[in-house]
Amino acid sequence: MNGPSISTNRLTIRRLTLDDAPFIVRLVSDPDWLRFIGDKDVHSAEDARRYLTSGPLAMYAQHGFGLYAVERHGDRTPIGMCGLIRREGLEDVDIGYAFLPQGRGQGFALEAAQAVLEYGLNTIGVARIVAITDPENSASSRVLQRIGMRFERQFHLSDGAKPVALYVIER
Fold first, then answer.
1. In the chain, what are the domains?
2. How many whole angstroms separate alpha carbon 52 and alpha carbon 20?
3. What percent of the chain has pLDDT over 90?
4. What is the predicted pLDDT for the residue at 7?
5. Is 85 left (phi over 0), alpha (psi -120 to 50) or beta?
6. CB 59 within 8 A of CB 156
7. Which of 57, 59, 83, 130 qualifies as a cystine partner to 68, CB 3.0-4.6 A?
8. Cα separation, 137 vs 85, whole angstroms
9. pLDDT at 98 over 60
10. What pLDDT sits at residue 2?
11. How far is 40 from 136, CA to CA, in rounded Å?
12. Is there a contact between 155 and 146 (Cβ–Cβ < 8 Å)?
């Protein structure tokens, strides 16, 4: 496999593939995804393959990193995704994550985000990583603070968009 396979105590973090389409449909259809991240117009496996091809897979090809599947070691079930993104409207590499309901409340987001952050800073050598979150998403803000990121400011990614909170960490 090209790219990282990051292992933590409980998780494997690996590149997404087109075979992950059913998981992607579940993840991006989750009410919390829709509330805090937005509708990606993914309603079928075909839509998910389009999302994967134009999103994570294209980012791997262009930048060598992107969003990754997060699986539990024991059953290899994808429970979320976490990775590094080049996002329009941001100068810096952005860490992002989202988890299915069964992957929440157990420290998986913290474990995955810490591993991806260390990968970005220490393996890839990114000097500054940012994260954006909905200011109302207190769980996400807590994860960012616990992995050592600091709140910098609120801003609008685009005209008419709701404000997002920007967190930063630098080597």
1. 5-170 (3.40.630.30)
2. 9
3. 88
4. 94
5. beta
6. no
7. 83
8. 19
9. yes
10. 53
11. 20
12. no
